[in-house]
Write a structure and sequence with these properties.
The longest helix has 6 residues. The chain is mainly beta. It has a four-stranded antiparallel β-sheet, with no helix packed on it. The chain has a three-stranded antiparallel β-sheet with strand order 2-1-4, with no helix packed on it. β1 and β2 form a beta hairpin. The chain has one helix and seven strands, in the order βββαββββ. The protein has a single domain, classed as Quinone Oxidoreductase, Chain A, domain 1, CATH 3.90.180.10. GO terms for molecular function: oxidoreductase activity. Keywords: Oxidoreductase. Pfam families: ADH_N (PF08240).
């Protein structure tokens, strides 16, 4: 299964990076993204070539922080999340996220 991540390669340079999804651990879940939050206070300055905490930001850099999606796979030890559940998690602007299956 392929995953796409939105990367800021430089000021005003966005690119989708393609990766293969790794096998999940027993305590992880796979989430298919429905929507992702954008921070105009942090991400917009980074896209424009500045940073709220650093006047000389580094590139390339991952984007995003909070995502909403549907669980499409659960690890063997995950008991409180099921395939089909909708969850909020923190994996950035990615089409597929792999996160710990915790509350």
């Amino acid at each position: 299964m392929e995953q796409y991540k939105l990367i800021v390669k430089g000021p005003k340079q966005l690119e989708w990076e393609t990766n293969e999804i790794k096998d999940i651990q027993d305590d992880e879940i796979i989430v298919k993204t429905i929507a992702g939050a954008i921070s105009i206070g942090a991400e917009l300055p980074q896209y424009n070539g500045s940073d709220v905490t650093d006047p000389h930001p580094f590139y390339p850099r991952k984007t995003g922080y909070e995502s909403y999606g549907e669980v499409i796979e659960v690890g063997n030890k995950v008991t409180h999340v099921n395939v089909g559940d909708k969850v909020v998690s923190f994996y950035g602007h990615e089409t597929i996220g792999i996160v710990k299956g915790i509350k």
